[in-house]
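Follow-up to my earlier ticket, as requested here are the two runs.
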Amino acid sequence: MTDRSTCWLLGVLCGTAVLLPAPTPAQSYRTVSAARVAMGEEHLQVSITFAAGVVRVMPGDGRTLYQGEIYFDDQKFRPVAEYDDQTQLLRFGIDARDGTAKVGKIERPQRLDLSLAPQVPIDFTASLGAVEADLELGGLSLESIAVTSGAAAAHVYFSRPNRIPCTTLHLKTGAAEFRAVGLGNARCQRVVFAGGVGDVTLDFTGEWVARRTIHEADIKLGLGQLTLRLPKTIGIAIEVDRFLATFERSGLTKVGSSYLSHGYDSASTKLHIALKAVLGDIDIEWVER
């Protein structure tokens, strides 16, 4: 077999992206796969777009720069699996064929699965519609993160520490259930959250960098239930602007316009939270780590 034939069959091992359409039981549904071998890239931009279905993102094994699969309704959507060598931009997901955001009824769940090289610095962006999302971003090398979620359930996990420092983590959700767990592991200097209506949990546990530094969180919620899970091991300062929203102050002492945690002044790592809520409940859970 010639080298060219070998490359054509293996595709991924030759460092090229491959689109592999496959038949599915539903006539209008297709599966598309794409991957690229890791070749010492120093940076990667990731842009995920998915209107409706199930999305999963996780760290890969490091041998591939990315590896993903999309299962989608081919009558309503077209697949996007594009990597630009010059800009190092990966676009992965689906676009509506008629160019509108209104996609109507989806007969069966669509799906996107994507794994990313842990060792490559990444600027990560995900724009999700009516999607059930499980994004495991722990263990990646994330320089910046932006996740927008629509009317569904989204869970963002940092089960392991980010390999590099992160500038900003932007989270935005509509009418949805939203969970962000292990935000201390994200190692982001600033966390920004904006929520419309929903049940929201922001968990700031994790391995915070032990140094004299102040991290910031800007949190806005329109209507709903907000639970803040805060570690006792760092200093917490909260400034609250609320209207018809209850605020659980247990474990906090008011000093001036701020509510401070026990041992705030002597803490080597501090988190300043600016919190604005219009209507709903704000609960705080203290965690021993």
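Run two:
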Amino acid sequence: MTGASQSPWPLSRIKRWHHASVHGRRTRVLAEMLAPQISPGASVLDIGCGDGTIASLIAQHRPDISIQGVEFIVRPECKILCQPFDGLRLPFPDCSFDVCQFVDVLHHTKDVRILLREAARVTRRFVLMKDHVNDQFLAGATLRLMDWVGNRPHGVPLPYNYQSRRKWKEHFAACGLDEVQWTTQVPLYPAPFSLIFGREMHFVALLDKKIQEKQSQK
């Protein structure tokens, strides 16, 4: 009999395989890519932090920063300080943090601009994010497969709301954010799996709301 906290077979087996084969490398690579983008001494809010693994690894790389999370359903095993929120409105005043961070969160929403605007409101300056780009041949189908394997065993909602590069630019501009850095060189998978599951379908971006604020004041 399957325990209440366990995923039914075969999801439990997929969950174990994914954790052993993908999870460790993914969290390490993302922490190593995200940590250098955070300004010295920054306060960071990790929106949709999950179990806090990536945030805790970032904190190990950057002991000078403080980092906390929010999550729709807070996991008891979360590795960082985390509080619940309704998935739409962040429970903080304007300009409460130096950096707001998303790691594979926005494609799980029906409207990416809702939380992106909230992040722009709550941050004093930067939004740091990792997500997907739906431009490559068969990218949508490949991303759906990856999403299902990585998240279905955890019961995460899967709206498969993947955006093209053009749409991301539109979302950033609509939320008052400018790109400081953008890269699709995100080595989450070793060869030869990178030829299938990489293909510039993942990006890391650093966004700055102060640039547009200064432009609007001119």
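The only thing I checked on run two: Helices lie at 11-34, 53-61, 112-122, 139-151, 165-174, 194-197, 210-217. Let me know what else you need.
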